[in-house]
Amino acid sequence: MRDHQEKLYNSIPSTALKDEEKSMYALVREAESEKIILSPREYQTELFERAKQKNIIAVLDTGTGKTLIAALLLRHTVEQELEDRNAGKPPRISIFLVDKVALVHQQYEVLKANLDHPVQRFHGDLRTSTLTRDFWQQKAGESMVIVCTAEIILSCLHHSFIKMEGINLLIFDEAHHTKKNHPYARIIKDFYASLEEGSQRRPRILGMTASPVDAKTDVTSAAAKLEGLLHSEIATVVDISVFARASINRPIEDLIEYSMPPEPFTTPLWQKLHRLVGHNEVLRRLFAYSKSSTAEMGRWCADRVWKLCLTEQEALKLEAKTERNFTSGKVQFPIAALDAERKAVREAYQVVANHPLPSPERNPFHLSSKVEALISALREHFNPVKDKCIVFVEQRLTAMLLTDLLKQQSMDLPGIKAGALLGTGSDSGDLGMTLKDQFVTMHQFRNGDLNCIFATSVGEEGIDIPDCNMIIRFDLCKTMIQYIQSRGRARRKESKFFHMVEFTNHGQLQSVFDNEDSEARLRKFYNTLSEDRLLTGNDFKIDYFLSKEKSHRTYTVPSTGAKLTYKSSLVILANFVSTLPRPLDAIYTPDYIVRSVGREFECEVLLPDTSPIKSAIGRRATNKQVAKCSAAFEICLQLKKKKYLDDYLQSTFTKKLPSMRNAHLAISSKKRSEYPMRTKPEIWDSRGIPERLFVTVLKMKSPEALGRPSRPLAILTRYPLPHIAKFPLFFGPQRTSDVECVSLPSAMETTFEEIEQVTLFTLRIFDDVFSKEYRSEPEKMPYFLAPLIHTHHFDFSSATDDIRAVIDWDCLTMLQNAARYLDLENQPDEFFKERFVIDPHDGSRKFYTVQRRKDLKPTDPQLPGLPKRQGGKKGERTAPKDIWNFSISLWSRARAKLTVRDDLPVIEADYIPLRRNLLDELDRPEVARTKCYLVFETLKLSVLPVDIVVMAYNLPAIIYRLETGIIVLEACKSLSLSIRPDLALEAMTKDSDNTEELSEEQVNVQRGMGKNYERLEFLGDSFLKMSTTIALFSQIPDSNEFQYHVDRMLLICNKNLFNNALDLKLEESIRSKGFNRRIWYPDGLELLRGKQNTSILGRKGVGKGVHTLADKSIADVCEALIGASYLTTYEQGSFDLAIQAVTKFVNHKHHKMMKYEDYYAAYQIPEWQSAEPTAVQREVARQIAEKLGYKFTYPRLLRSAFMHPSYGTIYERIPNYQRLEFLGDSLLDMVCVDFLFHRYPSADPQWLTEHKMAMVSNQFLGCLCVSLGLQKHMLSMTAGLQKEITEYVAAITQARKAAEEEAESANLGRASYARNFWVEVQRPPKALPDIVEAYIGAVFVDSKYDYGQVQRFFDAHMRPYFEDMHIYDTFANRHPVTFLANMLQLHFRCADWRLMIQEIAVEGAPLGHAQVLCGVMIHGRVREHATAASGRYAKIAAANKIIGTLQHMGVDEYKREFGCGCSPEEARDSDPLTHATAV
Hints:
- By secondary structure, this protein is of the alpha/beta class.
């Protein structure tokens, strides 16, 4: 198969085997595996219904689908057989009889593609193995259908290997052969007729033929004889307009005239050869043909035949035949005579090889008038680009000659790719073809590798040649059936059928007329048949039958008086369907399925997929015409009830549609509003003198990262703090530590004195370390700080007995009793080690002392490179750069009043750099010298121990993160969601102004906030889709897919989430501001000294700030919280918390579930699901269990998963797969998202989204469908679908085979083939991925909503394709829009382009047909455009069009053509997905 996928820029074409390298069986399978059973036309369904009731001979033109009727009947018979076997009856088989071995292979592949039951094939080549009793008994037990030649069955019946009673259906292909002693006739006469008429064990008979007459004989008597022999009645179509309504086209007939040929003559080459071997019997026919060709074909052809037939290889064969004739004769010749004959043959070969044959010319000397007329007709009527032609000839040599002639360059026939189709070879002297050669030719003709074939009678009957649009009878038809069969090959619209006749030759012209007259007499004979033997369609004499029907209903609209009747309903429904959204080149009409129920008829009407109501079944009627009207009437009533028809019975669908569109349920990511923002948690709001406090330890997991000894601190609160997830602080390169907040389990009783102690400690930390002096008001403190006696490595969770014991009360007492600063007078050297130095006049200057330096004095120079003092005070520039002046931060006037004291000790110290955002890994401290020298004229030594100060310096980051965590946990508590703390914070963190825009550069990024909500939103979005889908599926069983999508969109749309989030005040708790060192301090205290913060509080009041959020950000946080809920209970395998989150955020009557079991509790098993399954439904379930490992409790549910929407519920009372597909799609999306999320924990949402697209794409699911063989079980009636499936199955099978061979050639083994082989294959018909999703939905429902079954399906059948997701890195880039983006940016280095879309009105489009225009704008001008039904497809179409232009351009040509002056830097800095995105 050729690869039908459009080749994108620089893509590598997939490899394919040449036809000659494929086996014959592979070629037949590709040619005949079209699922014809998917598309029975109206008259075929009618004929099928009759064939179920009695023996018939289906007389239909070639190409009108007789085999389809056979397939339908076989499927019905097999289903009945399964029921019989289940009831304990002896097994019987169905037999499909053919007349030729080639047809065995062909019909076998047809039936294999259309039946999901065992099919076998046998022919004469297997004769020895088939002619045993044990063999046939085995096959009867394990097979349902056998395709074989009639001789095989006749022989087996004679030997009693098989009995007529053991056959349930006999199908006779080309049934007109049933006469005289033909095996068809002998089977009937000798074995069928002897069974008692009416016997239940007598098999049903179906005969198939294009005509009951195959010779010039009386039509009536011949038809009667055929009916008598086959014990059947002829059923046929009288009105050929029935074919037209079913898109069966008949060609336009015309004549090609040529001049009368001359008398045959002999050429010099003929004469020379005749002298050598003219008496050789082996060459007699070749001499005769060559001589006759001088008149029929022309002089050049008469000589050319020798070049074709007397090659070196053929000469050797002729020698062998000559020898065989000599030795087999009655008269014995001497050996010398034989040697002379063989020598003569060799000499003849040399004569032919050496004969100069010029290139043929189009003149009477070279070519006959007949051949010239053929060439002229081809030049005039045949377009090699789009047409296909078959030229029928009588003799094989003629076909070979004409094929060879058209390949000659001098004929000047560009584009014509000629080939020959001949019968199988024989020893008669003619050249023939093997079965494989025949199928290679037909395969090439189907694919377009050949577009003109010259065929003998083998192309008329039996072998199914692909459709063409031009037939030329180079040699005229000799019988009417030849005429009908060859004409039937031209099936395309506006096909042509030419008869080549000799000018003024009345005999030939009369022969053409005779065939036409014979067919007319045959049609006339059909008119004499009773009405129950004619196929009329459902519209035949509809007015007459309606007038006879007395019970048909009417409906009158009360408000307007508009009246709906049986007949008007057909027109009203057709008008409604015409208003449905559709492609501009498509025409939508209702489809009607009529079946007989006893003596009545029942009809189901099916509407297109875009209709809000898909189908309805009418009341039963005494004729099919009224049954059709009843179905139309019924669905019109439903449309009126749902208000899709107004009070004037006109479509309102276009008026209702906008309210259902996603655009009206969506919200903009650009729309932003200002909202209140909580800056402090509610737990701080409770103030007053506490009587007890709860202790939360703040400790470092890796304290050594601080660079100095430290010890933990405790935060004391009036109420217990929730569990806060650990978080990292970053102190420098390779220096990081997690902060752990350990809440001790019980409260600590406190006294007022102790409260004063911890208040003093807390305020001293704020004053000394952070230069903020607050008034001491314990009752207003939101929390307190306290020192601890243990190290960071102590297990504080074990301190449950005496919580007070962990607090360093001695330190608190010391601090309470100590002076404000340490006294420096007369202190020993050791006193100055490891102290904390503060500057009361400059809060930015803090130091750690190291040691006293007796070798230095205050007037010595200070070390260079120290950071400048804050504020740039006057006098610094002129002051000496000595230790004294560095240590004093007073203004110049105050400094001047001081006297330099040389007696002050000089202390070596480390300068503490200005604090930074310890939560931000990328935030680096200023590179400056920290070692310095100090004198204590104005500097002070803090009473606080250094190990406490070291830990206290981390408080801004710790308190910020602690308060942030508490705020989000309080929000979760208000939602009744016990989400894991780290996940809650991640879900509510928005760290840039446009976090929601995954494909755009992030603006105003807030560093140090940790993970943002993007990944959780990706996960939560999928769970939201799945949970609401299950809820709708469970609670609304009678809805259709269209309404499901609308209802689900109302639940999950961003607008609904946004509105509910505002009602819940969720926007206040979203974290959109990063760390700010000015706002972490406690609120509500009176600041006595230090800078007051006004940067974020604004005028909203204490504890509240403001922030600006996009509407979509708020909706995204809802989805992220759902994702966080899902992960919180992930290890327990519970969905309950996530389900509660969904219920909270969708706030809708259709999702009130609180635990997973509620979904199945809401599902009421419908009657159609629990009804007793038929044997065939059980058989399909058995086959699926065998292949996929899941055994269905309800086989009818599985059957529903395979019911295409076009297959009416009228047959099995089972709904189509659309509801299950809707369910399965969401389940599949969830299991794929879950896999990616956990498999790639660091992947960003853009990467996850793009790679999810590969996993849930129609391309992959189509491949999966074929690999699991699910398409074989699908039931459908959609015309054209079968051809698409056939082509796709062949293409994907070949792609996998090529991948396996590539792996094998690389010594990896076939099983190690690249799993992404499907990416380059053409897109599958949508029905294939649909049934995969429907199957998953069916398994889920059958297993009582066991999600584990979905997971098992994924692990067993999907995951092997995606173990290495990186092989799909380019999958999204293959999307035309993304591909265009990368082409323009990376290849052409262009940054100035856009895809612009706008909804437009299209003239001539159907009412309500929304069209979207997409323009590709490059450097300010629209360079290409396209329209489609949606923005997505408009973008794809426009991108494909511009890619077609650009892929042939060089970079310089592009720059010149489009005036592009973009620099490489501009192109590199632009994000291609800002312009357009593929997902």
